[in-house]
Write a structure and sequence with these properties.
alpha/beta; seven-stranded mixed β-sheet; 6 helices; about 15% strand; KANL3/Tex30_Abhydrolase; NSL3/Tex30; Alpha/beta family hydrolase
Length: about 230
Amino acid sequence: MSKGQSAGIDEGQCSQWQATGNWLWDLPAGERRATLILAHGAGAPMDSPFMQQMAQSLAARGIAVLRFEFDYMAARRLDGKKRPPNPQARLLEQWRERYVQVRQQVAGPLAIGGKSMGGRMASLLADELGADALVCLGYPFYAAGKPDKPRVAHLAGLRTPTLIVQGERDALGNRQAVAGYPLSASIRLHWLESGDHDLKPLKRSGFSHEQHLAAAAQAVAGFLGGD
């Protein structure tokens, strides 16, 4: 796909927010190994520091990243008013729309995924859409304070090759809790020492947040690139 040939998406302006379609491209300088559609979490937009650093780090490793915003977040950008996420049915509908648009324009491996909620929504559709891979960054295995109500039923039969990058002390799915879930053999877990839901480690771990984000990007790039 050459620059500027996508419907409403201008790859030539990969560092700028596209008001017409709520898209952001981050493209590799060299060969593209794969493309990842990356959705944001419930409370932060597609250009949050986490999303920005992850997309740029992946692009530097040969992975083209396309970020988009769900309707409720795009509306907040326009008027500054905080809103709760759209109902799940609408979030899934938007994911389907974005995937179809990108699949029509992009050749080669196409993965889907996201931060927290964005990744969970992608996981509900990965098999249906026929995505080449699924990437979840800080998967919300359960809602805050509700570890007794895990949201993992669909993960037991997931067929799409999946990578979940998770902090060991994630409040929405720590290592001990996740060890007890019957996850599909197609799911690979990459744990980051003492990381929280944003993959930020405790200072005493000896790691910095930047190091963990870089490690996450390296794991994702290797997974999508077939390393």
